[in-house]
Amino acid sequence: MLEEIKNTICDYAIIDPNDITEDSKLRYELELNSLDLVNISVDLEDKFGVSFETKKFLALKTVGDIMSYIEALKA
């Protein structure tokens, strides 16, 4: 799951996927803006077969938070 998320983030951020960890902060380290995050959420919904609440997704702080959110939705 982490690799899929990292690859999706790299579609919107100029960063090496190897530099992204679960603790990477979406806005401050990866410099993603709200539009980037909305686009990432749409891509991840398709990849993982889940449906995000946009407001909740935009409130996530780290890559690990995205993983936890997806896991919770799949449970």
Explain this structure.
With 75 residues, the chain is mainly α. It has helices at 2-10, 34-48, 54-59, 63-74. The longest helix has 15 residues, at 34-48. The chain is globular and about 30 Å long. The two termini are 15 Å apart.
Count of strand segments: 0
Structural class: mainly alpha
Average pLDDT value? 96
Helix content: 55-70%
> Gap between N and C termini, in Å?
15 Å
Tell me the name of the CATH homologous superfamily.
ACP-like
- Count structural domains: 1
Number of continuous helical runs: 4
Rg (C-alpha, Å): 11 Å
Shape: globular
Quickly list its features.
75 residues, globular
SSE topology sketch:
Layout (H helix, E strand, L loop, with lengths): L1 H9 L23 H15 L5 H6 L3 H12 L1
Helix pairs in contact: 1-2
Summarize the entry for a quick read:
The protein is built from 4 helices and no strands.
